[in-house]
Design brief:
The protein is α/β, with parallel strands linked by helices and 204 residues long. It has one domain: TIM Barrel. Helix content is 32%, strand content 16%. It contains nine helices and eight strands. It has an eight-stranded parallel beta sheet with strand order 3-2-1-8-7-6-5-4. Strand 2, helix 2 and strand 3 form a beta-alpha-beta unit. The radius of gyration is 16 Å and the shape is globular.
Length: 204
Amino acid sequence: MIVITNPFFIEDEIQMLNSLLEEGLSLLHIRKPDFSEVEMAQFIDQIKLEFRTNLVLHSHHQLAEDLGIDRFHFSEKERKKFPARFPKPCRFKSKSISTSTHSIEDFNSLENEFDYAFLSPVFKSISKENYHPEVDLFEALKSRTNQHTKVIALGGIDAENIQKTLENGFDNVALLGSIWNNKNPLKQFKLCQQIALSYSQSQV
């Protein structure tokens, strides 16, 4: 399961992030678009060193080596603005890279270098006002031709629809609003995690 940080300030955020990772969070996407390079380094320095391999950097990729991070995310805008970067530039060859897509056509056209990609919005967004799907992504996913890149559901994912999302062909889910808009983020994460794990175990 993937959790994306709230782009805005949250009280006791570092403590909460460490708790999520201690509870078995596989991947934590560090998305703080307004952070300077210094602020990003200071933020990540507060996350326990043992969890650096679980972190995915959305910006200031140049900090990765010093911080012990080998996972990188590129927005759709970055991917399309700098197509020459993909397939992987040399400095990302041994790294894990992911990206964001908003249509099955974009997802299918990705280079094989991407390990996984967000496809959104699946449902009406919890964190973004007036952000909702314009097409049925469950139906669109039937046209999937890209089997190399894992497809991750994003947008409105919560405990009520995780199983439905996985049953309809998504490889995994990413949580944002359902965690950070909840009064008890850790409890909500554990509930979502259990639903996803139960589904995975039922498919073995």
